[in-house]
Design a protein that fits this description.
Shape: flat
Strand content: under 5%
Largest sheet: none
Number of strands: 0
Helix content: 55-70%
Order of helices and strands: HHHH
Radius of gyration: 17 Å
Number of helices: 4
Structural class: mainly alpha
């Protein structure tokens, strides 16, 4: 299984299926492989593939941030502004 392979080999195997993995730095790719393997196992045991689908969606969004250097810098830095009050969620 993927968790038993060296992280760089597992990442290369997943790159064929998920080419957006290539835009992430090595540490993020390693974490993706780990998260993918855990979500896959959990989904298989539960027979509920939404767990894996959510993990893939979250990592795809992460890759999109890494693909945009300006956005990555903005989201990585400290937040110094006050963005005003937070409204209570609808439906609560």
């Amino acid at each position: 299984m993927l968790m038993h392979l060296p992280p760089d080999i597992a990442a290369r195997a997943l790159l064929d299926e998920f080419p957006w993995v290539d835009v992430m730095p090595a540490a993020a790719r390693q974490q993706f492989v780990h998260d993918f393997a855990r979500a896959f196992r959990a989904s298989a045991e539960l027979g509920e593939w939404s767990v894996l689908a959510q993990t893939l969606g979250e990592w795809r969004s992460t890759a999109a941030v890494y693909a945009d250097p300006v956005l990555a810098e903005q989201l990585s830095g400290p937040i110094d502004d006050d963005f005003g009050p937070v409204h209570e969620p609808i439906g609560n």
